[in-house]
Design a protein that fits this description.
The complex is a heterodimer of chains A (316) and B (77). With 316 residues, chain A is of the alpha+beta class. In chain A, 63% of the residues lie in helices and 10% in strands. Chain A has nine helices and seven strands, in the order αββαααβββββααααα. Chain B has 77 residues and is mostly helical. Chain B has a single domain, classed as F1F0 ATP synthase subunit C (F1FO ATP Synthase), CATH 1.20.20.10. Chain B is built from three helices and no strands. In chain B, helix 1 runs antiparallel to helix 3 and helix 2 runs antiparallel to helix 3. The radius of gyration of chain B is 18 Å and the shape is elongated. At the A-B interface, helix 7 and helix 8 of A face helix 3 of B.
Chain lengths: 316, 77
């Protein structure tokens, strides 16, 4: 990049930062459940489902593009994805050990890539800003009509219930057609259930049904260990809840934070929060996948060897 | 004390987030402090300490996020 185009770029960024002081957005409307976009014979397609499909198609295309012409010495996108997959595999290897790493890697990697794609794609412009206007009697935003489209112009206001719409404008609420899939409690719950179901399944396959069950209903070692077993049952169930709400809370709060910050401060400071959101998306994906991995490793380790296996994993 | 349910809801949202942030704040501070100390004592183990710190950080953060979710539900639902 030569000096002139570098200066032009900096000029454009500065102009945007200054213009951001004068452009105002209306008050954000926060809605916890996912809004329905279209209903096909009783099956409701929500905006989070659409965003999840977009993520799935994106991941399929990305990995197809990387593997369609694989070089022995990787270049470009193949190199980047090899770094990601390799780093993830060595992380799985360091926690699960050589014997189980290949078995656990597909689930852990799928969870990681799906969550991180959902998080990062939902930061793109268009998610949450393009949608269908619901005209109703509640408080709404003033949209300017331009043919079939309704636009929110800079300086649009939120008006109270039953206000009269001026010429060439409608008042309504925006229901976006795309919204990050991690902000839907259904998705996080589904992933948590799949993760914990896989944990139990691998535990039973490695230790046998009664071997694994003896961790929970412990009749052999005395009354105190019986209660420890019951507490284990409760802690397994609470892991589903904590998986669900950790991811949902982080992602939903991040979405609300961005919407409110854009409403409150000029554009320049919003960039800081965007960086935070990128980082949080990455960390939450890593935490979800990493915790699944840790729980499966603990489940296959068996009852008495737990402390041994943990010590071994730490020294490697 | 405020009278209407709306006012009490707003108060509850504020209290939920405010009080709910005390615990995780202290927890994260302790965790990061101990991690810094450990790195200072043994700089070679830096990557290992960092990875485990981030994992434990996510646990601490989750508790704060539960409080935030409650506050949001109180305010907007």
């Amino acid at each position: 990049m030569d000096k002139l185009s570098g200066k032009v770029l900096i000029g454009i960024i500065l102009a945007l930062l200054v213009a951001g002081f004068f452009v105002r957005v209306p008050k954000p409307e926060i809605f916890v459940p996912a809004e329905a976009v279209v209903t096909v014979s009783g099956f409701v397609v929500t905006n989070t489902l659409l965003a999840a499909w977009v993520s799935i198609i994106f991941l399929m295309l990305l990995f197809r593009a990387v593997t369609i012409n694989m070089q022995l010495v990787p270049r470009g996108v193949q190199n980047v994805m090899e770094v990601a997959v390799d780093g993830l595999y060595s992380f799985v290897l360091s926690v699960a050990g050589e014997r189980y790493a290949r078995r656990f890697f597909p689930l852990v990697a799928t969870i990681f890539f799906f969550v991180i794609t959902n998080s990062w794609l939902s930061l793109l412009p268009g998610y949450g800003t393009i949608g269908i206007v619901h005209v109703g009697e509640h408080e709404g935003v003033v949209f300017q009509k331009a043919g079939p489209l309704a636009l929110i112009m800079p300086g649009a206001e939120t008006v109270a219930e039953g206000a009269h719409a001026p010429e060439g404008a409608t008042i309504g609420m925006l229901a976006p057609i795309l919204r990050g899939a991690n902000t839907d409690l259904n998705f996080t719950l589904a992933m948590a259930l799949i993760a914990m179901f896989s944990v139990e399944m691998w535990g039973i396959r490695a230790n046998g049904f009664f071997g694994y069950g003896s961790k929970f209903i412990n009749l052999k070692e005395g009354p105190i260990y019986f209660f420890v077993g019951l507490l284990e049952i409760i802690s397994e169930l609470s892991r589903i809840i904590s998986f669900t709400f950790r991811l949902f809370g982080n992602m939903f709060a991040g979405e609300v934070l961005l919407a409110v910050i854009v409403f409150l401060v000029p554009w320049a400071l919003v960039l800081v929060f965007y960086t935070l959101e990128i980082f949080v998306g990455f960390v939450q994906a890593l935490v979800f996948a990493g915790l699944t991995l840790v729980f499966t490793t603990m489940a296959v380790a068996g009852h008495g060897e737990e402390h041994h296996e943990g010590a071994e994993a730490h020294h490697s | 004390m405020p009278d209407s349910p709306e006012a009490v809801k707003l108060l509850a949202a504020g209290l939920a987030m405010g009080l709910g942030a005390i615990g995780p704040g202290i927890g994260i501070g302790l965790l990061a402090g101990k991690a810094m100390e450990a790195i200072g004592r043994n700089p070679e183990a830096r990557a290992y300490i960092q990875q485990n710190m981030i994992l434990a950080l996510a646990f601490c953060e989750a508790i704060g996020i539960y409080a935030l979710v409650m506050a949001l539900i109180l305010k907007f639902v």
